[in-house]
Each structure stands twice: as C-alpha cells, then as structure tokens.
Amino acid sequence: MSTTLPDYQNDTAYHRPVMLRECLEGLDLQPGGRYVDVTFGGGGHSARILERLTTGHLYSFDQDADAEQEAQKLARPQFTFIRSNFRDLYTALQQRGALPVDGLLADLGVSSHQFDTPERGFSTRFDGPLDMRMNAEDGDTSASDIINEYSEADLHRIFGMYGEVTNARTLAATVVAARRGQTISTIAGLKKAIASVTPRGKENKYLAQVFQALRIEANDEMTALQEMLTQTAQVLRPGGRLVVMSYHSLEDRLVKNFIAKGKFFGEVEKDLFGRTNVPFDALTRKPVEASDEEVALNPRARSAKLRIAVKNE
Ligand SMILES: C[S@@+](CC[C@H](N)C(=O)[O-])C[C@H]1O[C@@H](n2cnc3c(N)ncnc32)[C@H](O)[C@@H]1O
C-alpha cells in the first residue's frame, strides 16, 4: 500500500514524528478500523491515523500529563485519549469495550517536548532537577532517587546494561563516593560528581549514555515494554498489525525476540509434535530504518528501528 501523505515534514512544536509514512503503512489503516497508539507524545502519528478514519476509532495512551494536554487538540468522536501506562493496555481497552483492535503502534522512548523541557531533567544540555519521570505524578522512582539510594552494585548494573557505559563499575563507585554527606539532586550536581570519570572530548556521548540508563530505570521501561508486548497478542485480532519503533538495541532486541519467538529470552517453545505457538509473523525480517533525507532533517530518526508483524489467525 502506498500513501501520498507527507511524512517527516509533519512535525509539531511538541515532537517531530519519526517514519510517519512507514508506520501508517505498517498499520494497514482501514477507515472503519479500530487502532491503538500506545505512545501519543505530541500526537504526530495519532493525528495522521485519525485523518484516515471515518467510522473507525483511535485509542491513544500516554502516561505524561503534558501529552494529555496536547491530546485535547485532537478531540473528536473517533478519538479517545487514555492517560495511563501502556503496561495497562489490555484492561484499559477491555473496560472501554474496545477489544479486539486492528492495529497497534508503539513509538518508544521520550518525546522531544519531554527532552527539551529543562524542569523534566531528561537532557544533559540544561541544569534542572534530576527527575526523568515520564509520569511525574505517580510516585515512581526519580533519577535522583536512583543516584542517591541505589547500591553500588545496582548502579553498576544499570549503567552497564541500560547505558552500555564502558567504565560502569568505576562510575558507580564514583557516584557512591560523591553522595557521601550530600544529596545529588541536580543535573549540574551529577555532572560535577562524575567529572573525573567522564572521558575528555567525549563528554556528550558519555553523559547521554549515563542519562539513558537513569531514564530507563526511573521509568521501568524494559519491564513496561515486555508487559505491553505480551498483551498485544490478546489485544489484536487475527490479521491485526503490530508496529513498534525503538531507539536503542536493548528495546529492539526485546521486540525482535517477541515477534520471532513469542518470548523475550531463550528459544521458541515447541509442543510434542514440533508445533510452535508464536503469536506473530514478522513482515519485516530486518528492521526498517529512516531514509537519509529524514535523518538529515531529524537527527532523532537516526537510531530508530521499526518492526512490523501480523497477528496469526
Ligand atoms: C517518542 S514519544 C511519541 C511521539 C509520538 N509518536 C509523536 O509523533 O508525537 C513517546 C511517548 O510515549 C510515552 N510513553 C513512554 N513510555 C510509556 C509507557 N510505558 N506508558 C505510556 N506512555 C509512555 C512518553 O511519555 C512519550 O510521550
């Protein structure tokens, strides 16, 4: 299916949607269909999905209060915004009588708006509180809680695993030494505390990795993703489309394994007759990546990996 939609030029001040055309094609949109966007953000993808619906309906999730505010701009009978973590996907849709659905889109990670708001604490470019919670109201752990309260072993684990920080052990020890007798509660405070182990000339890349690790942990992103993906098998009708875009290798590996094997780790399970029970068929063996043209306009698209699958009959 091809569309005449403009794609990467459809940005809003809130967020510029990545691989818009590819995502919409992946969803195989039908005007009367029922769709879910589990990561509304600035509504870049949601707005375009809605444009295509006549009798259909779109349910969009986001756990962020600013996204909820933004969603009011799209108010119309075909649209329902759900302020919730996407780990509650099945229940939230069931409560609204919205099952099964024809397609589900997930555009993981944070929005440009979250990233560019200094008080949210996501970006190394500003000073601000060490927060990084996407849903600042639900009492989840903030980045500051992690820095000040986690054990050295846990800090080592998250810096290594979620940030792929090469000197994760030294970094964890440095944080633990720096927090003795004081609380590290700001971005500037953290940068100063770890300056001695931040590689010269590679500060930006290094800090981005450290911040990525804190963000993933603060929002429990890996668990939420696994819980949401597991529920997609119950939420999508047979023949329905699963469209997931991720921005780092750990996420993409979970998505890839889930589509290929129906599970996140280990091998495909077979019954006594050698039959498998994998709920999806991949429509893209390799992940789709953004065009050079899109990446030139939107550097955030560079790391995006899009995977599309169809629910088995
Ligand atoms: C990359 S942005 C989505 C951008 C959107 N596709 C657009 O083009 O405007 C990701 C959004 O998903 C939300 N999000 C991330 N993880 C979530 C989760 N577990 N539950 C609900 N929302 C989540 C974030 O708050 C953020 O607004």
Automatic annotation (TrEMBL):
Catalytic activity field: cytidine(1402) in 16S rRNA + S-adenosyl-L-methionine = N(4)-methylcytidine(1402) in 16S rRNA + S-adenosyl-L-homocysteine + H(+)
Keyword field contains Transferase: yes
Cellular localization per UniProt: Cytoplasm
Record GO terms (molecular function): rRNA (cytosine-N4-)-methyltransferase activity
Organism: Hymenobacter mucosus
Presence of keyword rRNA processing: yes
An example Gene Ontology CC term for this record: cytoplasm
Enzyme class at the top of the EC tree: transferase
InterPro entries: RsmH, SAM-dep_MeTrfase_MraW_recog, SAM-dependent_MTases_sf
Binding residue positions for S-adenosyl-L-methionine: 43-45, 62, 86, 107, 114
One of the Pfam families matching this protein, by short name: Methyltransf_5
Function field: Specifically methylates the N4 position of cytidine in position 1402 (C1402) of 16S rRNA.
The EC number(s) this enzyme carries: 2.1.1.199
Main location: cytoplasm
Protein name (Swiss-Prot/TrEMBL): Ribosomal RNA small subunit methyltransferase H
Protein keywords: Cytoplasm, Methyltransferase, rRNA processing, S-adenosyl-L-methionine, Transferase
Family that this chain belongs to: Belongs to the methyltransferase superfamily. RsmH family.
UniProt record, GO biological process: rRNA base methylation
